[in-house]
Design a protein that fits this description.
Layout: E1 8-19, E2 24-26, E3 31-32, E4 36-53, E5 59-62, E6 65-66, H1 72-85, E7 91-98, H2 108-123, H3 130-140, E8 152-156, E9 167-170, E10 178-183, H4 194-204, H5 211-228, H6 231-250, H7 261-275, E11 281-283, E12 290-295, H8 299-305, E13 310-312
Parallel strand pairs: 5-7
Antiparallel strand pairs: 1-4, 2-3, 4-7, 4-8, 5-6, 8-9, 10-12, 10-13, 11-12
Helix pairs in contact: 2-3, 5-6
The structure holds (3R)-3-hydroxy-3-methyl-5-(phosphonooxy)pentanoic acid.
């Protein structure tokens, strides 16, 4: 019998995929159809605190607000904790604070489940190695398996049916001056979550058949770009990868379009700046917001065009 210790708190960073994960080969275990590659966002992410309670249900709080036990997020968290507690009588007050907008395509579920995994590992004194923590986090949200690590991270899709070889692997940790900028178009909750979005795409878009090949080619290009610090290759590959993923979504039925008119306007602004010689690229997830990829030397110029840009340097200053 495991005894939960006093309150514990853990942090995990959000991550932005440069080669996206889109499509599951196993929906129970969150096993992906393709490998993906991301960069973790340093201090932007989730702080999760676990306090053992005497109650018979988990008490879930998000950004200072208590959730109803029946709320979707609350249920997801409780089901995730079930994987750790099994049939033991162990319940927690779970307090998660995101310093990024929740559910707006800025991957707060990734940092949330990664921080929760780390906190459960501490609370239950499990002492699991990083790869096992990554596998556990994957069960909460696929992309969470990448948030266990800093810097560039590859999620190896694995071959096994039990998913024990499908986890994040830490890659390069240094790229001074590499910047990410968050262009917030809409911080509201998105209408279609990534789980149902992926399922719809896999089941209805014929175009999806080309996705695993696109992702495999892009993964190779990104590995090369990271090894050679080739920013242009990295930016081009990430942008094309994101647009290819969105093309498969748009080709689903009913159509799945996460963009808003302002998203398209921001894309066009990026293309215009690039035609003027600025090395800036974008990527987008299952939401209307853009994430810009650029280098520190161009930060001031970029801020003139995107005044509200929140910028992060994943590898520090
Ligand atoms: O981990 P999920 O189920 O929230 O899916 C994430 C999907 C994307 O953000 C669109 C792509 C990715 O690799 O992060």
């Amino acid at each position: 019998v495991v005894k939960a210790s006093a309150s514990v708190e853990q942090f995990a960073p959000s991550n932005i995929a440069l080669c996206k994960y889109w499509g599951k080969r196993d929906r129970e275990l969150n096993l992906p159809i393709n490998a993906s590659l991301s960069v973790s966002l340093d201090y932007l992410g989730s702080h999760t605190r676990l306090i053992p309670t005497e109650g018979q249900v988990d008490d879930v709080w998000l950004n200072g607000q208590q959730l109803q036990p029946g709320a979707r997020f609350s249920q997801k968290v409780s089901e995730f904790i079930d994987l750790f507690r099994r049939d033991q009588n162990l319940y927690f007050k779970v307090e998660t604070r995101n310093n990024i907008p929740t559910a707006a395509g800025l991957a707060s579920s990734a940092s949330g489940f990664a921080a929760l995994t780390l906190a459960l590992n501490d609370a239950l004194a499990l002492d699991l190695p990083p790869e096992h923590l990554s596998i556990m986090a994957r069960m909460g949200s696929g992309s969470a398996c990448r948030s266990l690590f800093t810097g560039f991270v590859e999620w190896r899709m694995g071959q096994r049916k039990d998913g024990l070889d499908s986890h994040g692997v830490q890659l390069e940790q240094q790229w001074p001056g590499f910047c990410i900028g968050l262009v917030e178009i809409d911080a509201g909750e998105k209408a279609t979550d990534s789980r149902s979005g992926m399922q719809r795409t896999v089941e209805t878009a014929h175009l999806y058949q080309s996705w695993p090949l696109q992702a495999a080619v892009d993964l190779g290009k990104l590995q090369q770009a990271i090894a050679e610090r080739d920013f242009e290759l990295l930016g081009q590959t990430a942008e094309q990868n994101a647009l290819s993923m969105h093309a498969t979504m748009i080709a689903s039925w009913p159509p799945l379009l996460y963009w808003q008119p302002e998203s398209v306007a921001a894309m066009q602004k990026v293309w215009q700046l690039r035609s003027q010689g600025l090395q800036v690229y974008f990527t987008m997830d299952a939401g209307p917001n853009l994430k810009l990829l650029f280098q520190r030397a161009d930060r001031a110029t970029l801020l003139q065009h995107f005044p509200n840009l929140e910028t992060v340097e994943p590898f520090g200053c």
